[in-house]
């Protein structure tokens, strides 16, 4: 605010902005000129003091001090903040915490050496990328506060060896599953838990593209072809679960094809929640969270195993998804990691593709085989990646893809114009539902031609409805024949 003078009854008052950003005042001036001159002098002195404070701060503040200040200024979800704090304490601050922020401008070589050190220590590509991006964000924020003159994480074009850059890019190998592979992962998941729930859960995650928290938060009473996603079951740093609204950008309409509506309604009618007293008002999963984040018991579509009201995310990954997709329980924990063993059948018959030994034994001496992994790097989020690839294969228009995925990739420049003029239409939605229904039918046909009875009752009931004269059932290993046919429909008008 510009310094100025304001009139009083018999004098003038000087007003200016102080070093603390607050409006200051001094009265008793006989003329407006005197008051204005004094106010401007004080404002200049405050500005000089502010610059002096900035210079002093820039000369003395360390990365450790700046990181603590930066954490108080950012506005992110709890999970993101928890990840930032973990990466800062475990990786960034041990390396850079004692450095003065201004000295980072000359630390390009030290930064490159640190990147190589992380790589030599065996951290995965995605983990290294998260750590380096966090450090880069710290540097960018310091530049905005005029604490740093140059970002050391920026490599100028033409610097460094091209071979190293290509090698680093090659580490991020995409994990994309076909609809048939997703079906088998879902069937394995249900075989491991000995119930239909996980089959429906994995299939729904793939065909809707929901995140894991959004999936767990689907209400039982809200199954319709035009599903509106508004809530999620958010897990904090412990096992507490909060039933809360999704971010505004993630609220979206997700159209459900007929087969998925049927599966979800089957799940709603048959889900068996753990027993609770009749007078229970709130689900026990939120006993330690704020009341506004609680939900009624037995109101959600998916439940955990045993006495757990819902799946804890880590338990679902390590005991269901990882063994189904990677062929390993607890793959990242050396003490508990073990393959999904297959032991000989009691009747001496041939092994089935869904047979497994459910006894906990780190090393099974009588096992004769293990489950073949689909991909040793698979995580549940890769089902979203796979759906996006499927939608691209089907030539689905971009507005409908973005709506279904909860993404908004058209944010700047020409893309903002595309966002303004391009929208998902009912005709697009109808075509997509037809395409997904055909993909599902071709997947069922291919699964039936596998010729193996499923240990999952829901899968058997689905396969019974498929009439295919080429099928002969057996208990032998699956016949991995040609991939399913793709639709010949065109999205062109």
Protein model, in words:
The chain has helices at 32-60, 63-73, 78-96, 108-120, 125-144, 162-171, 179-193, 197-208, 212-216, 258-270, 313-325, 382-393, 398-405, 414-421, 426-449, 457-464, and strands spanning 4-7, 12-17, 23-29, 226-229, 231-235, 241-245, 252-255, 328-329, 338-339, 341-342, 369-370. It is built from 16 helices and eleven strands. Helix content is 45%, strand content 9%. A three-stranded antiparallel sheet has the order 1-2-3, covered by helices on one side. The chain has a two-stranded antiparallel ribbon with strand order 4-7. Helix 2 runs antiparallel to helix 3 (78-96), helix 7 runs antiparallel to helix 8 and helix 7 packs across helix 11 (313-325). It folds into three domains: 4-60, no CATH class; 74-171, DNA polymerase, domain 1 (Orthogonal Bundle); 179-464, no CATH class. It is elongated, with a radius of gyration of 30 Å. It has 493 residues and is mainly alpha-helical.
SS class: mainly alpha
Low-confidence parts: 410-414, 475-490
Q: What is the helix fraction of residues, given as a range?
A: 40-55%
Radius of gyration: 30 Å
State the strand order across the main sheet: 1-2-3
Secondary-structure element string? EEEHHHHHHHHHEEEEHHEEEEHHHHH
Shape: elongated
Strand tally is 11
Number of helices: 16
For the largest beta-sheet, the strand count, sense and barrel status come to: 3 strands, antiparallel
Number of domains: 3
Give the overall pLDDT as a whole number.
Answer: 84
Distance between the termini: 58 Å
Strand content: 5-15%
């Amino acid at each position: 605010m510009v310094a100025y003078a304001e009139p009083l009854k018999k004098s003038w008052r000087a007003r200016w902005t102080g070093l603390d950003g607050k409006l200051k005042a001094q009265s008793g001036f006989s003329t407006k000129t005197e008051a204005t001159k004094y106010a401007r002098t004080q404002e200049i002195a405050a500005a000089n003091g502010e610059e002096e404070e900035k210079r002093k701060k820039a000369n003395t503040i360390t990365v450790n001090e700046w990181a603590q200040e930066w954490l108080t200024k950012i506005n992110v979800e709890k999970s993101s903040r928890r990840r930032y704090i973990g990466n800062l304490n475990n990786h960034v601050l041990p390396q850079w915490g004692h450095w003065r922020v201004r000295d980072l401008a000359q630390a390009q070589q030290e930064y490159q050496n640190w990147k190589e050190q992380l790589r030599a220590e065996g951290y995965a590509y995605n983990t290294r990328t998260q750590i380096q991006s966090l450090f880069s964000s710290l540097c960018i924020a310091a530049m905005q506060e005029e604490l740093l003159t140059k970002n050391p994480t920026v490599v100028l074009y033409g610097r460094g060896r091209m071979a190293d850059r290509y090698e680093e890019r090659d580490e991020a190998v995409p994990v994309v599953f076909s609809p048939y592979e997703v079906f088998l992962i879902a069937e394995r998941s249900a075989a491991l838990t000995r119930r239909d729930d996980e089959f429906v859960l994995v299939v729904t995650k793939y065909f809707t593209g929901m995140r894991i928290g959004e999936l767990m938060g689907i209400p039982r009473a809200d199954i319709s072809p035009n599903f509106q996603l508004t809530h999620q079951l958010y897990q904090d740093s412990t096992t507490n679960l909060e039933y809360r609204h999704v971010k505004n950008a993630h609220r979206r309409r997700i159209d459900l094809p007929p087969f998925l509506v049927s599966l979800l309604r089957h799940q709603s009618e048959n889900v068996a929640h753990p027993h609770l007293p009749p007078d229970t008002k709130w689900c026990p999963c939120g006993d330690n969270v704020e009341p506004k984040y609680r939900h009624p018991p037995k109101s959600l579509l998916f439940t955990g195993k045993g006495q757990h009201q819902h799946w804890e995310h880590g338990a679902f990954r390590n005991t269901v998804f990882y063994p189904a997709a990677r062929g390993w329980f607890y793959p990242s924990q050396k003490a508990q990691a073990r393959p999904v063993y297959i032991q000989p059948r009691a009747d001496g018959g041939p092994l089935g593709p869904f047979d497994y030994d459910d006894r906990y034994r780190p090393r099974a001496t009588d096992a004769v085989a293990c489950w073949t992994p689909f991909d040793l790097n698979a995580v549940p989020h890769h089902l979203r990646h796979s759906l996006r690839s499927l939608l691209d294969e089907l030539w689905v228009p971009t507005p409908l893809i973005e709506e279904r995925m909860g993404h908004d990739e058209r944010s700047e420049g020409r893309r903002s114009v595309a966002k303004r003029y391009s929208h998902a239409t009912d005709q697009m939605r109808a075509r997509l539902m037809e395409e997904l229904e055909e993909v599902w039918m071709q997947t069922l046909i291919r699964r039936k031609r596998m010729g193996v009875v499923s240990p999952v009752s829901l899968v058997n009931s689905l396969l019974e409805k498929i009439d295919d004269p080429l099928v002969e059932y057996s208990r032998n290993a699956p016949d991995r024949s040609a991939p399913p046919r793709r639709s010949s429909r065109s999205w062109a008008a």
